[in-house]
From TrEMBL:
CDD domains: ArfGap. Transmembrane segments: none annotated. It comes from Miscanthus lutarioriparius. PANTHER family: ADP-RIBOSYLATION FACTOR GTPASE-ACTIVATING PROTEIN AGD12, OS02G0722500 PROTEIN. InterPro entries: ARF_GAP_AGD11/12/13, ARFGAP/RecO, ArfGAP_dom, ArfGAP_dom_sf, C2_dom, C2_domain_sf. One of its GO terms (molecular function) is zinc ion binding. It comes from the Eukaryota. Keywords: GTPase activation, Metal-binding, Zinc, Zinc-finger. Pfam families: ArfGap (PF01412), C2 (PF00168). The keyword Metal-binding applies. This is Uncharacterized protein. SUPFAM superfamilies: ArfGap/RecO-like zinc finger, C2 domain (Calcium/lipid-binding domain, CaLB).
């Protein structure tokens, strides 16, 4: 082999360290440390185009589906191309993929367990990915590439935002949509003054902040205020903080939590123009040890708009205060109780 050819060979086969590191970081998230289909621990296989991590048994079933439906790779033995890694990273792992492929999983159709028979395992996996029985038939998505890649950012602009692109100025084209957030109420909030608190809510996304009014001496405040935040193209989690207002000293934190916007936006991208859909569930954000969810959160279409309901446990709050509830939808609605957040 000539020097030039040897160089080309090394250049084409040498892994991209940055992307490989991101894939490894994705693998160690708690929801990716179990098989997406049966829950078996420590999966060593993955479907690169679907974006899920799999055990050996489920991987065998996926392989039988063919690469057009599921491209199976070993996470330890196979060489991953840049596009394969990009597909996995775009989807975000098991929780995000399952929020689409299991959006309408019936209660009487349980997922396989690690010790389930191959017959049942095969039946479930084929129903989930090949015939996509747990999606509305008219909304079935292609598995030839990751489902997140089947739509463009332009699709998000039209599906997620209530504002037409014709009305978007040059200065706002960095955003893909807008959240309308209704801060509703709080119940049994933490005491930060002598006997009470003066609570208010701050929402942060990127460099933007939105703040509710202060409710004086009220541990059970009622706000019913609408806050608006634009969603940037490179969005991260929406951060929610509850503070106690002080006149003569720094405001005291009463609790905080992060809301992952990806399940909602991923569902909106996969299902197209939601204004044409009837009321229906289109996705789910799964509770894991890595997030603040108290239970799985569904993503729904209501009156043509994407909405989500979440129940979050506020962080950095002393244990004697049980929780706050926050409402989260396309028109994010918060209603805090104690230290739990649950979205309406």
């Amino acid at each position: 082999m000539s020097t030039a050819n040897r160089y080309q060979h090394i250049k084409s086969t040498k892994p991209v360290v940055g992307k490989a590191r991101k894939l490894k970081d994705l693998m160690i998230k708690s929801d990716n440390r179990i098989c997406a289909d049966c829950g078996a621990p420590d999966p060593k296989w993955a479907s690169a185009n679907i974006g899920v991590f799999l055990c050996l048994k489920c991987g065998d079933v996926h392989r039988a589906l063919g690469p057009d439906i599921s491209k199976v790779l070993s996470v330890t033995l196979d060489e991953w191309s840049d596009s394969d890694i990009d597909s996995m990273l775009e989807v975000g792992g098991n929780s995000y993929a399952n929020s689409i492929y299991e959006a309408f999983l019936p209660k009487d159709h349980p997922k396989p367990k690690p010790d389930s028979t191959m017959e049942y395992r095969t039946k479930f996996i084929r129903a989930k990915y090949e015939t996509q029985d747990f999606l509305k038939p008219s909304l079935r998505i292609s598995s030839r590439s990751s489902f997140k890649s089947t739509t463009s950012v332009k699709s998000v602009d039209s599906n997620f935002s209530s504002t037409s692109r014709k009305d978007v100025s040059e200065d706002t084209r960095e955003f893909v949509g807008e959240l309308n957030i209704t801060v509703v109420k709080g119940t049994n909030l933490a005491v930060r003054d002598m006997l009470t608190s003066d609570p208010y809510v701050i929402l942060t996304l990127g460099g933007q902040k939105a703040q509710s009014t202060v409710k004086k001496s009220d541990l059970n405040p009622v706000w019913n205020e609408v806050l608006k935040i634009s969603v940037p193209r490179n969005y991260g989690p929406l951060k929610l903080e509850v503070y106690d207002h002080d006149m003569f000293s720094a405001d005291d934190i009463m609790g905080e939590a992060e809301i992952d916007l990806q399940p909602m936006i991923t569902a909106a991208m996969a299902f197209g123009d939601t204004s044409r859909l009837g009321d229906m569930q289109i996705g789910r954000w799964f509770m894991t040890k890595d997030n603040a969810l108290m239970k799985d959160s569904t993503v729904n279409v209501v009156a043509g708009k994407v909405k989500q309901e979440v129940h979050l446990k506020l962080q950095n709050v002393e244990s004697e205060y049980p929780g706050v509830t926050v409402g989260y939808t396309h028109s994010l609605s918060f209603s805090p109780f104690g230290n739990w957040l649950s979205c309406l």
